[in-house]
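Sequence in, structure out. Go.
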Amino acid sequence: MRHHISPARLGVVAAAAALSLLPFAPRASAATTVTQDELTPTAMTAGVAASARLTVHSSACFTARTLGVAVRDASGNNLDFPGSASNVRICPGGAHVTSAPRTLPAGTYTVFGFWQEPGGAWHDLPSHRLTVGKAAVAAGTPSSGGGSPVSGRSVVWADDFSGGVAWNAKWVGDKSTAYRYGDHNPDDNKLDRLDRSAVTTSGGVATFTAKPSSHTLENGRKAWTTGLLTTEGSSEGFQVKTGDYAETRVKLPAGTGAWPALWTWKDGNGEIDSFEYHPDNPNLLELTDHVTSGSDYYTDSGAVAPGRWVTIGTHYGATSVDWYVNGKKVYSDGHGVGSGFSAYLILNLSVSAGQYHPAPTGSTPLTMQADYVKVYR
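Output:
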């Protein structure tokens, strides 16, 4: 692994983008220069592995200790393409390196070639932007730009996380009345201790991370810090109503103890679970209407699995609550929520305490990702 190049240093290189020649130092003539002829890629798709290719030439032959391709995200973090070449002979006729493939999350990055002198000094070549687009979803799956499978509906509320988490405006992340103590609720077989810093965004995707906490719950169990988004208490105070269709697209977690869900809550009731998921039942979604009655265990090994993106939606009908997976209706409870239903949305990653599903067996963080949340009316 090569040394970190600070954003400040990268900024200097970028500001001097007009420089296509970088002076070569020890063990070569002072007049020796290295020129970048080609650098790819300029675009990738999230989750799809791609290799980088760098072609350079020099004004005189010499052997570079290292030649490779670097990537920086918007925060300056190193995400370099693996497989840099060692002891590369660079001559006026040219030399090239093709990296090993890697994947990147959706977003915008800076990519540039680099080389290392025989004496150890590093040099960056001119940079360009690398755009990583969101992956296409399976046929028939509503995506960020898709529509509701319930006819006659249009979007009335949405968040695609492209501008970060809209704290206070759309979401609250450190408390919910669904939790007995506001930020934790050991009564419900949960190790959760809410902290809004446990929800981060990058490239239009929200990542929920759960990890062991120093806090001890009232029942003596060690808590896990984790993330929750609720519309309750936000300035918008958005609530779903009878007739609405709510949908999210999530990447299901793999770690033991992870317990993600999209659900509703209000005044100690109003709970409709669009889904609950536990990796110990890797192909199963729990779909539940707690307002009246109705539940189903939906199993689909082709659509539901750890690490897989899946689109899940719920139509809060007056006489029947209907659930959809990847745009297909999979269950109707035949009871509904009545005509006066309204409730706040909650999207979260809980951590199981072990009563019904296994608790975490170690301290490895658990993660879930969300592409968007949308409500149609």
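Check: DSSP finds one helix and 26 strands in the chain. The longest strand covers residues 122-133.
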